[in-house]
Each structure stands twice: as C-alpha cells, then as structure tokens.
C-alpha cells in the first residue's frame, strides 16, 4: 500500500498545474497549489502516508457531513429533512438560483452551502460558543485528534468576504427555513468551515463513517449507524457537487470535498482516505486529488458499485 500511494502521488502530481487555488476566500488563496498528499487508514487501524500528507488545511465543506450528523442527533430525521432536501442539484456549491423556485423553499441537499447553512441553524446549544464547542468536540472525537482547532485567519477572512453565503442565509431566514439571527448562524457556519485538519484527521473521520459510526478502539457506537448511512449516501450523490456523477463512475466511493483542496473518503468496511491538493478544478474539487483517488480505486477495486 505504502509504495502504491507514493507512486500515485508521483504519477499525478503534474495535474496540479491545471488547477487553481480558491481565492474567493482571500486567506485560502495563500495555499501552495503544488502540494499533493494522501493518508489511508484501514480497518485494522494501520496508517499509510505519502506525498505532502503533513500539511494542515481547513475543513471547509468537509465539515458538512459532520454537522449533518450532529443535527440529526440533536433533532432527528423528520425535523432535519423538513428544512433541507435529499436531492442533488447539478448546480455549483454556492448557487442561489434554484432557491426561489423551490416549493417548499428548502435547499435541495445538505452538501451545498444553502443546505449546510440550514443544517447548521439546527445545532443545539445555549449560545454560539456552546454550539461551536459541540461541533469541535465531535470533530475531535471522530478524527481522534483532541488538538483540532479553528484557523482564525481563514475564519475571519471568510467572515469578512462571505457575502454570497450571507445572501443565502438572509433568503432562508425570509422563507422561514432558518430561525434566529442570520449573522449568528453564518458565524457558526464560517467557524465549522475553518476547523483545521490534516489528511490523517480526515482519513480517520472517513474510517469512522466507513465503520458505520463505531469507534474501533473503544468498540463503541458513537453515532447511530443509520445516520452514518444517510451521510454516506449524500456523499455519493452530492459530495463532489456537480461532479458527483462523474466521480461515482470513475472512483465510486462516498467522498466529500472542500475548497481548501481536501477530499475525505469512506470506503465502507474497508478504509478511510484523506487527500489534499489545493489546486482545484472548475467545480471546486482538488484536481490532482481526484486523479489519485481514481488510480487508487482502480488498483484496489474500491468502487462500491
Ligand atoms: O462556504 C463556502 O463557500 C466555503 N466555506 C466552503 C465551500 C466548499 O468547501 C465547497 N467545496 N468544494
């Protein structure tokens, strides 16, 4: 496995030249587009690392599956899906255009920004501080990294510039999908996106999902299996945004990307994978990261289909 990962990183590194680092969040624009790294964690807890696996990056949209898990545990399925749908959009992740025409006016799924903002609004806690603590604690627990924390620069950078998300949140407030203060909900959303992780952290989260919500070391179910199934299904149908269909054919595993260039994958009952490659394709997914995953999936026959 170790040499396979190394080969795949070397073979696919040239793709970074064809992508671009996200710069609509100014602080993300500082990432090095040439980086490419991967970590695989298997069911036996063995860890394999290759390339620039040791760099840190923010979770961005990879936070969406985790916050959905917490919202499901806090509220149950019925309430969550009264605020957000279960269908792919075929639109970019930050698109606004369908929101006004939907009846009822709920965002189509929890993996696009609009849906994720609706989900974030459901997190329980006496104030934003407590709500964020709860999100961060879940991240720490299932990534097995008690030191995870927020990257303040990225958080403040997005808070300053996130006007498209602001527009989405205010619209959702107007149509009663979110309740409470739109700015507070956005603040929590920007914070969850700014939690700083490594490939190993997201590979562990992927492994946790692959393992149906069970902590392997403790032998304890931390999250109901059914909720992890819901989340993995969204990762397949919407996790790579409007490239989810292509990714399902070429790679075939539940995955969630973030604009930082990370991709978090759960191969059911087999492994968790974390990839970083900040140079993105036109849909906002790591261009070289997707190629590495294609190679890995073909070699190890990882497709679930
Ligand atoms: O809300 C945003 O635009 C970012 N914080 C997260 C978007 C994202 O990661 C999309 N991923 N490909």
UniProtKB/TrEMBL annotation:
The keyword Transcription does not apply. The lineage of its organism: Bacteria, Bacillati, Bacillota, Clostridia, Peptostreptococcales. It catalyses: L-glutamine + H2O = L-glutamate + NH4(+). SUPFAM superfamilies: beta-lactamase/transpeptidase-like (SSF56601). Homotetramer. Pfam families: Glutaminase (PF04960). Keywords: Acetylation, Hydrolase. GO terms for biological process: glutamate biosynthetic process; L-glutamine catabolic process. The keyword Hydrolase applies. Its EC number is 3.5.1.2. Belongs to the glutaminase family. Substrate binds at residues 61, 113, 158, 165, 189, 241, 259. This is Glutaminase. It comes from the Bacteria. InterPro entries: Beta-lactam/transpept-like, Glutaminase. One of its GO terms (molecular function) is glutaminase activity.
